[in-house]
Amino acid sequence: MNWSEFFSMGGYGLYVWGSYLTALLVLGGEVVLLMRRKKSLRKRSNHDSQ
Amino acid sequence: MNWYKYASPSAFYPLAGKMIPWFAIPATILFAVGLYIGFFVAPTDFQQGDAYRIMFIHVPAAWMGMFLYVLMAFYAGLGWAFNARLSSMMASSLAITGALFTFISLVTGAFWGKPTWGTWWVWDARMTSTLILLFLYVGFISLQSAIDDPRRADRAGAVLALVGVINVPIIYFSVQWWNTLHQGATIRILNKPTVAPPMLAAMLILLAACWLYSIAVVLIRLRCIILEREQNAVWLAEGAI
Q1: B interface test, pick of A5, A7, A20 with most B CB neighbours within 10 Å
Q2: Rounded distance, CA B4 to CA B64, Å?
Q3: Of A4, B7, B22, B85, which has the maximum CB count within 10 A?
Q4: Between B44, B58, B104, which is nearest A26 by CB?
Q5: How far is CA B163 from CA A6, B45, B103, B171, in A?
Q6: What is the pTM of this model?
Q7: What is the pLDDT of residues B35-64, one digit of tens each?
Q8: Bridge partners, residue B49, by sequence
Q9: ipTM
Q10: Among A36-45, B15-24, B208-217, the least confident range
Q11: Which 3 state secondary structure label does DSSP give B49?
Q12: In Å, how far is A39's CA from the nearest CA of chain B?
């Protein structure tokens, strides 16, 4: 299989990759922000209990 | 086993922590498998070309947007009716993930519509009702964050969530009730599906991945909400985390 052919998606590359990139950014962003929220909460509760 | 025990946030907190990897790891595997089938096994569609591959993420995202709304309304209602804090926290946690999936379904729908219909957006019944779904989620989230007292915020959110649940069957049946540009259902429970097996497999595997992802993320957020709201509870000081 040819990779440039794969990325062009038969001329629909912009739409196909745009869709998957959006999904990746939104769900990946959700996970990253959630991990940060968790980390800062954990830090705070450790601080409180000392 | 006494399940009622887990209705208390302090008892549920460690249990949720143990459950998360059982959803997060299979979700990652199924995302990889589903995308592999969707891009390398499923053949190019003879009518839509490769643009149809957007459906592998669009359809699961749209379904998740609807499912999670119903689940959110259910938990919000339960929390209101039985004064169960954990249920209300669950509803708040579901709202964000549901809103994000609805957003993904709208954006990917536009990316599909442009090459296929020649337009990013039309005010068609299904698309309009899906946009209303996003507004309901955003309304629920902003209403809750605007009220300082958490239990009052829960009750107000529950009213909004339960009234808005009427929109979900409207989205689902919109393609039958109105003459929409959006096509009808491709996958029906009672009929034979009208798509090729690898296409169907990619879609269903990604749907399962989205479900598992949602459960994992919602549980992680639920734990954060428990910590934020009940930080003064004794059990935290006792080192339950």
Answers
A1: A20
A2: 28
A3: B85
A4: B104
A5: 46, 40, 21, 15
A6: 0.92
A7: 999 999 998 887 788 999 999 999 999 999
A8: B45
A9: 0.90
A10: A36-45
A11: strand
A12: 9
